[in-house]
Amino acid sequence: MQKLTLLGCVFAxxxxxxxxxxPAGFTHNVMTGATSRGPxxxxxxxxxxxxxxxxxxxxxxxxxxxxxxxxxxVILQDQYALNGGQEQYxxxxxxxxxxxxxxxxxxxxxxxxxxxxxxxxxxxxxTPVGGTIADPRGAWVIAVAFATPIALPNNQDIFIGVQFxxxxxxxxxxxxxxWPNDGLSLHTSLGAGGLAAIFxxxxxxxxxxxxxxxxxxxxxxxxNSIYSYAGGAHQGQADLLVSSTVGRGVITVVTNQVSYxxxxxxxxxxxxxxxxxxxxxxxxxxxxxxxTVGYTYLGAPAGNLIFYLLNxxxxxxxxxxxxxVPGSSGMAxxxxxxxxxxxxxxxxxxxxxxxxxxxSPAARGLIGGTNLAFQGITFDAANNILRAAACGAVxx
Length: 396
Hints:
Elements: E1 2-7, H1 11-19, E2 21-23, E3 34-36, E4 45-51, E5 56-57, E6 61-63, E7 66-78, E8 88-94, E9 96-97, E10 102-106, E11 120-126, E12 138-153, E13 158-164, E14 184-190, E15 217-221, E16 226-228, E17 234-236, E18 238-243, E19 248-254, E20 292-298, E21 305-311, E22 319-320, H2 321-324, E23 331-332, E24 340-346, E25 352-356, H3 361-366, E26 371-380, E27 385-395
Parallel strand pairs: 1-12
Antiparallel strand pairs: 2-18, 3-14, 4-13, 4-15, 5-27, 6-7, 7-12, 7-14, 7-18, 8-11, 8-13, 9-10, 14-17, 15-16, 19-20, 20-25, 21-24, 21-26, 22-23, 26-27
């Protein structure tokens, strides 16, 4: 699979931005189980993937009220990518509808034009030539640099939207010539089995209280002016790009699922399904499961001291670390007065450091219904600064 860099500004600036950026980590060790353009098939569609404010806070270069991001990254697939089969797409970011309010839905109505109330728009872009005569499909990791850093609002859901036109019909050797034999789609991780071989079954905790059909994928059917969390449980292979010089971290989980092999060994997977909703109770939802969650700090320089913190939810009054230690970055988004230090490590230089939260059999009997929030903060003794990574919440 190729990595394709798309530029939202002058070339020199964009390459500089991408060279200094890295994924926030929401798709770390997340496995593709499907490629989707929603249940409506070949029609024009906007697929939106939600980053829930109740799952993550203070990612990117976080400050009071906002999270600064540099770009976005997605994995797209064209079912017919041979020369002459190229298609167009756009990438947009939206905030949450807080005025109506419609929690867990974006800040536009489904009958409004695509792009209404968008926070940023990139495109249109055209897919490159790919595939072979034997297999005409092409897939690409698409990295997009914004013209300038974007300050996304904290404490509300953020949606990464990918807009597809009506699927092409260039595959003359297939019936039908259009979707699913031609057309653009976006790689997703599946949260339930069905007919797929790769999927990640979550535990008992509900996603957004169950109002999103336990999915992170919202399908906006542009032609019929409707949107819904239909089409099964999906998490998109969609991530935000943030500065590589600030703290980055995600919740990860180790499971024994044969259907999700990247979760079987450390550091586990950051899948929004089992990482944020583990099957960890004494009586598991899926027999034989005994998931172990942890926090994975990404990109810590070798020798940095990493502190792993734990609390019962996010803090009400996050603190900018720069106000405590000049030159530091990020927010202490747990209540420091009541936070528990889970442990600490010396960063090994691998850019991936994990601290697990093991549960005894007795604890597994009591953990049901509990929400716990984790955060990683590094101390760089050479520069005398702190770097806070994101806070993530686990629903047991």
